[in-house]
């Protein structure tokens, strides 16, 4: 029997001819990503186990991106970022995307060999999973490990990507290897195209509703089929990002021309010189289950409080009033997310408190440059009453310090483009969070209750 895409990557990276689900492999890691929440703990464990003078296995293999609690006056959060800066200096890491020194200044330094490359030490705020893609670190056929559950986002690029805890990450940091159990694979064969008003977020919420928020526990979710052609890379990232919300070990997409064009462009633009391999699932690969999905049948979908599997259709939720709308995060703060939100909003006003947090500073820049009528997307959103911030990052998606932008700190009902709606996720434990696509969030912001975006097209 042949191998699935996930099995092929794990076999190649562990130098085996073949693997089957249940095998344990010691695999070579291409990229380890960490951020300001888990980075200091990972570094501490590495030094404890490998020695205070230990070096990372490859200075260009570790990517450090502060993003969770970066724009806050909280001293402990600031201390975490300072810890990452110190480690990056000590290890001469090539890829450290700093957010400034707290005074709005860029933090830079020179090594004995001279200034480090442009990526290092320059202020480039953003959510780690989107920054990884923008900067050319997500590549087909590779293994990317991150200290964040939504590291599975990178599976959109035909890469095995998964989140781990600090101990596993410390082992990777010191050795460049990770011990993994080969997961079974669920296949999602996509046909047709998404109808107008429907987005990738609706598709993945539909899937999670079908299989349950634990329906893919420690399994790979593989997406393939002719329906991929209607999904941009950013839309594929949205789907892969939420694989973990079904319990998935990883989510992974078949590689096509759209994938390679994006990856090659980002690598070229940011000076990443790496050869990658495009792998494909074998025609006789074995799957735990196969799902055939006609994209034409997908409707605007909402995950109601209190978990991502509590699925309902937007058109059935008109009686659910909202206090707040939120667009942002690694799932819903990308450029295409904001463009869809803005086009659904049109010339209308938000009737409830609405926050917008771009995923990266590049998204901020493009929103300010992209025309919309006689203004820009950014200005149109501000004119519509959306409270926008230039401080790209995770913001309210994980609650955080009380001064985190957009944090839900009261007993509110919020509709959000984020990826997780367990109690307390965005702040107050009694807040009710409903997940939806950018279009559905925009329609709901206009209506003051959950609304079907097709009614606002």
Strand content: 15-25%
Cα Rg: 21 Å
Helix content: 25-40%
Distance between the termini: 48 Å
> Numbering strands along the chain, what is their spatial order in the largest sheet?
4-3-2-7-8
Q: How many strand elements? A: 22
Helix- and strand-based class?
alpha/beta
Number of helices: 13
Looking at the structure, what is the overall shape?
globular
Mean pLDDT: 94
Low-confidence stretches: 101-121
Main sheet attributes: strand count, strand direction, barrel closure: 5 strands, parallel
Can you offer a commentary on this structure?
The chain has helices spanning 5-13, 39-50, 75-91, 128-134, 166-175, 200-211, 233-241, 257-269, 329-332, 335-345, 361-369, 377-383, 438-447; strands at 24-28, 31-34, 62-64, 95-96, 110-111, 114-115, 143-146, 160-163, 177-181, 184-191, 219-224, 250-253, 289-294, 301-303, 311-313, 324-328, 353-357, 371-372, 375-376, 386-388, 413-416, 432-435. It is α/β, with parallel strands linked by helices and 457 residues long. The strands form 7 sheets. Strands 4-3-2-7-8 form a 5-stranded parallel sheet. It has a 5-stranded parallel sheet with strand order 20-17-16-21-22. A 4-stranded parallel sheet has the order 12-11-10-13, with helices on one face. Strand 18 (371-372) and strand 19 form a beta hairpin. The longest helix has 17 residues, at 75-91. The protein is globular and about 55 Å long.
